[in-house]
Amino acid sequence: MVILIKDFEDINYDLGIGLGVYDIHSPRIPTKEEITTAINRSLQQIDRSLFWVNPDCGLKTRKEEEVKDALTVLVNAVKAKRQE
Prior knowledge:
A two-stranded parallel sheet has the order 1-2. The protein has one domain (2-83). The protein is mainly α. 49% of the residues lie in helices and 10% in strands.
C-alpha cells in the first residue's frame, strides 16, 4: 500500500477507491495504530468521501481465526476514525 499511496501523491485523484490497509499474506494481526496510520496516509491524498478501507486483496491465504481478529482490528480503527 505504501507504494500505491506514493503514486497518488503525484496526481490529483478524484474517483472512488478501496485500498488495502494491511498485508493479508502475513499471519501477524495488524495493530489498530498500524491500520490508522495507513488510513491517515491515504486520506492525505484521497478525499474521505471517495475512500473505502479494505484488507489487502483477498483473505483466502489466512485461517478463519486470523481473519476474524484482523478484521475486528480494522473495523475498530475505521469506527474510531469516523468519530474524528
